[in-house]
Amino acid sequence: MVSEHSDAPDGDAAALALKILVAGGFGVGKTTLVGAVSEIRPLRTEELLSEAGQSVDDTDGLDHKTTTTVAMDFGRITIRSGLSLYLFGTPGQDRFWFLWDELSQGALGAVVLADTRRLEDCFPAVDYFEHRRIPFVVAVNCFAGARQHGAPDVSRALDLDRGTPVVLCDARDRDSGKEVLIRLVEYAGRMHTARLLDSVG
Asked: Alpha carbon of 65 to those of 26, 57, 151, 170: distances in Å?
């Protein structure tokens, strides 16, 4: 969950690096979000969509999508001095879900990206993190032309646990993505602190 680095600037405490997952359905914008916020050139494992995959990949409503992540995306962003996030984007198709258990090891929390046009596609990610008690926020990627829904409506539609944050974002915009990540770190920090206090109480 947390690693320390000795290359922090003089006078700073040891730098912290937190592992964050970016999950969600096929074509929801995970690769876009990681690429938009990463301060390094993101690592991508994308392949072209093939005719063979058309029978298993639901591309309805994704007319312009030509590639898909087959392992993970990776990026890094510095939130403030001494605090960096390592971002791991998960593949969206169910045939790659066996990778999630490996990617989730040591994660502080997760961002579940949602598209209100295909809201049901993020149910598996929500269920995954709820069952493993990994703190997460739902970030609604506001696609052009999509009907706008407020956070309370999305929360009810996904039957989220009380207190799970829902935020609206533009996965293409760095500042918007950074705000989502800050919200997650704050929420996950509160959740982990509460659990620690419960365990010692």
From this structure: 10, 11, 27, 17
Residue bearing tokens 């937190």 = 18
Residue listed under structure tokens 């001494």: 82
Three-class secondary structure of residue 41 per DSSP: coil
DSSP output for 124-157 = HHHHHHHHTT--EEEEEE--TTSPP--HHHHHHH
Distance CA 143, CA 92 (A): 18
Residues of the chain with pLDDT under 50: 6, 10-11, 49-50, 52-57, 62, 65, 69-70
Contact (Cβ atoms closer than 8 angstroms) between residue 73 and residue 44: yes
Q: Which residues contact 29 (CB under 8 A, 6 or more apart)?
A: 113, 115, 141, 171, 172
Go through the chain and tell me how many residues it has. 201
Going 113 to 160 to 142 to 85, the CA torsion angle's sign is negative
What is the C-alpha separation between 76 and 199, in angstroms, rounded?
32
Structure-token match 């390592």, residue found: 86
Around Cβ 196, how many Cβ atoms within 10 Å? 10
The answer to whether the pTM exceeds 0.90 is no
Local structure of residue 58 (DSSP, 8 states): -
